[in-house]
Amino acid sequence: MSSEEIIDPTVQHDASIRRVLLHLVLPFVVTVMAVLAIALVGINSYRTTKEGVSTLTHQLMGAVQQYIVQQVTDYILPAATGNLIASGMIEHAPAQVEDKVFYSYGSTMLRKIPQLQSFYLADDEGHFMLIARAAQKGVQEHVRLIEKNGHKYFHHAFWDESGQKISETEDDANDYDPRTRDWYKNTAGTDKVTWSKPHLFPTTSQFVMTSSLRFKTDAGHTMVFATNISLNELSSYLDQIKVGKTGSAMIVDSRGLFIAGKNLTQQAKAAGWDPDKMVLDRNAYPVFALGYDHYRVRGVGPRHVTWDGTDYITIAAALPRYSDSWILLMAAPESDFGSFAHQSSHQSLQFLAIITVFSLVLAGLLVRQVRRTESSTRLLVKQKEQIQRESSAVQQVAVAPRLFDPTVEPLSLTEQLTLVTGARRATLWRFLHDGAAMVCEDAYDQTQNTHSGGFEMARTELGPFFSAIEEGNAFSVENAAVDPRTTRFERLTMRELGTKALAVCPVHGPHGVEGAIMLEDPHLQPHLLYFLDLMAGVAALRFAAQAQLLNNQTDKIVDVGQQVATLDVPAPKSDNMLMKAPEATAVNSASIYPSVAVLVITFSDPVVEGGKQTEALIELINQLAADVQSVAQEEKLFAVEVAGHRMICMAGCLPTPDVTAIVRVADAALKMREIFMASLAAADLEPVFTMGIDYGPAFGGAVGNEPKVFNLWGQTVSLAELMAQGAADPGTIQVTERVYGVLRDRYLFRSRGSFFAPHLGLGRAYTLAARR
Fold it and tell me: Residue 391 burial by CB count (10 A; 0-12/13-18/19+): exposed, middle or buried?
């Protein structure tokens, strides 16, 4: 036996052990060590984060406390320190101007500071003045206590924001004496600001508190200046302040009486508007009640409380001395400030679990990666074949004879689309008549290897489908029968063939979407979109060539129309013309006018009852028609036509452009509107008419046998009528953007917004107001 055939079993054993150690034991040990290391790091990070969160939470709550205390202080400040400022102003003012100083200060403060409701001024002789917000917004009420014939009255004067007096009234004051009121008596024996109990201010339905200050004037009189601050406004302000994510704040006094906070009005009503009964409700505000109990025992500062299994942080903070021993209470769940610590710990645990799972399935992933590599190799081969098919398809399209000749069907284009995308059928559609219809340039059925085309689809039948194409974005549906955009298209064209899925790629041209490529039952991949875009570009070039061909044909028609327009045919007599066309310009056959101004006036039926009202209405209509004739002759309009509920006024019906036509029509519209408004108002009728104007090309002529009738057609007439029908209010003149662009330097307009015109799309409309 040769030495090469001798097998050493110990060598195999050693190799097997090494493979086990290398592929099993070593990865397992490394994984366990990584898991232990991550666990230790996670536990240590959690402890450190928890300690840091506790410290940071207190710091954040302290910062929030200082911020809210400052905000509430700023809110209360005008009511307290304002007394000092006002008393200082009045104290040294001459007696004859004390009221002016008081009203000037009070009026300014009420305009600038919304939480202030009113101001009082009374002296030791019983004189009394008041300034307050009236029930009407923007109006202030000045009240003075006066005496007539031994009886007291309140004199009320109402002033608007511009300082103009609106009205004055007086009412009986009975035996009113300001010196008997709490806000006056509370100041006895002190020169500091004092506060009254909360009470309802009847004129504005505000729950208010009054801060008062006693002082002596240079004339020797003792006066009391008082300010009412709205607790409703303060409560709304506190309700807007958020402590953390879900916390809130309220104000109580040292006795635990509710001053301001959420649901102030409900608290006041429940207590019968008695401030001594508005105690902090432990059922409604249990967390705040616990915070207040901690304040009573330990004083101000942050505290931890627990309610219903949830940990809260409460803070009690004393407001400034001039707030009458008010306490600001704040409460927020501890999770609002420390939630990120819990999230961090959860993320650490999740990270540990992810690493563990990842380590355990690493070997499986390696095997899977090998299989995916093989699959990727096969996919690359398929993609290479697909690229070859696409390149071949592009080459076949490029070498197709007369590809951009619109008289030749695009057979190669649709065939290559089905070949590359695997579609059952590919069709090429082009918009006609300004988007009113689509025509099929070519349709290729791959299974039957047949071409067809030439059939049309109207927008009236497939409105949603047309709109989806005109949005300009490619789209596809798995089941065209159930999609609202493609339901009718599926019923008309796809159901006969039995196809289900549909892909649509719009064809963009210089004027927007000009058609679409449609694929039925395709096998589309994302990398095929560029190929569809390329084929759409080829189709766009064909459509451009088709448009050029149509334009050439249109130019020939226009040349013929211009020749007809030069004919001098007498204008026919017309029974529907209030003002017939001039003899020199009216023609028996159609003429094209490049700059026609058209005014359409539409009327609605007024409600009449009885023969007399009908006769009066006919007489009014006759008068309006005569007025229209007069204005038309004055502005030298071309013609005025009556058609049922409409009057159509036109100017500029000449073969050459008439730049004055639109000006004359605009002037005529303004004059007619004034005449109509005055005549209808004199007849005690509401305005029952609207006007619309457009300016642009049109064509027209005399039609019929003798007597012939002159008529005008074109989009200019249609848009003018659309403007009249779409006017927002009776009596308005609505014009198109073309009219606005020509007349905006001579007339005043208001923007009306956008409108949709069939076959044209969106446009802007304006309202003609007057001449500049």
Answer: exposed
Three-state DSSP at 441 gives strand
DSSP per residue, 120-154: EEEETT--EEEEEE-SSTT-EEEEEEEEETTEEEE
732 contacts 767 by C-beta, under 8 angstroms: yes
DSSP string, 478-536: S-TTTSTTTHHHIIIIITTTT---EEEEEEEETTEEEEEEEEES----GGGHHHHHHHH
> CB 274: neighbour CB atoms within 10 A?
11
Q: Name the burial class of residue 374, with classes exposed (0-12), middle (13-18) and buried (19+) by CB atoms within 10 angstroms of its CB.
A: exposed
Give CB contacts under 8 A, 24+ apart, made by 252-257: 252/280, 252/292, 252/326, 252/327, 252/329, 253/324, 253/325, 253/326, 253/327, 254/325, 254/327, 256/280, 256/292
Asked if residue 141 has pLDDT above 80, the reply is yes
Q: Which domains does the chain have, with CATH numbers?
A: 390-553 (3.30.450.40), 577-771 (3.30.70.1230)
Which of 36-40, 519-523, 583-587 shows the lowest mean pLDDT across its residues? 583-587
537-581 pLDDT, tens digit per residue, is 888 888 887 777 656 544 443 343 343 333 333 333 333 455 555
Q: Looking at residue 377, what DSSP letter applies?
A: H
In order of 14, 486, 762, the CA distances from 465 in angstroms are 74, 6, 18
For the residues 115-125, what does the mean pLDDT come to? 88
C-beta separation of 541 from 404 below 8 A: yes
Residue 98 half-sphere exposure toward CB, CA atoms < 13 A: 25
Q: Look up tokens 């006041």; give the residue.
A: 268
pLDDT, averaged across the chain:
77
Q: What sign has the CA pseudo-torsion 56, 57, 63, 66?
A: negative
Please give the residue that has the higher pLDDT: either 764 or 613.
764
Give the percent of the chain with pLDDT over 70: 78
End-to-end CA, the chain: 121
Q: How far is Cα of residue 12 from the mean position of the Cα atoms in its chain? A: 78
pLDDT at residue number 558: 38
Distance, in Å, from the CA atom of 215 to the CA atom of 191, rounded to the nearest integer, reads 7
- pTM comes to 0.38
**What does DSSP assign to residue 434?**
G
Is 273 strand, coil or helix? coil
Q: Which has the minimum average pLDDT: 374-388, 452-466, 633-647?
A: 374-388
* Confidence band of 691 (pLDDT split at 50, 70, 90): very high
Q: How far, in Å, CA of 541 to CA of 20, rounded?
A: 68
Contact 113, 131 (CB under 8 A): no
Residue 399 pLDDT > 90: no
Tokens linked to 764 = 């802007």
Evaluate whether 763 touches 718 at the Cβ level (below 8 Å). Answer: no
Number of alpha carbons in the 13 Å side-chain half-sphere of residue 327: 24
Centre a 10 Å sphere on the Cβ of residue 431 and count the other Cβ atoms it contains.
Answer: 23
Residue position matching structure tokens 């030298």: 636
128 Rama sector, left if φ>0, alpha if ψ -120 to 50, beta otherwise: beta
How far CA 59 is from CA of 303, 327, 482, 486, in Å, comes to 13, 20, 60, 62
Residue 36's pLDDT is: 74
State how far the alpha carbon of 648 is from the alpha carbons of 516, 556, 660, 691, 724, in Å: 40, 30, 18, 10, 11
What is the token pair recorded at 554? 């249109």
Per-residue tokens: 693: 């104007």
Q: What local confidence, expressed as pLDDT, does residue 64 receive?
A: 73
**Phi and psi at residue 195, in whole multiples of 5°?**
-120, 140
Share of the chain above pLDDT 90, in %: 9
Instruction: Retrieve residue 564's tokens.
Output: 């007809």
Hey, what amino acid is at 651? A
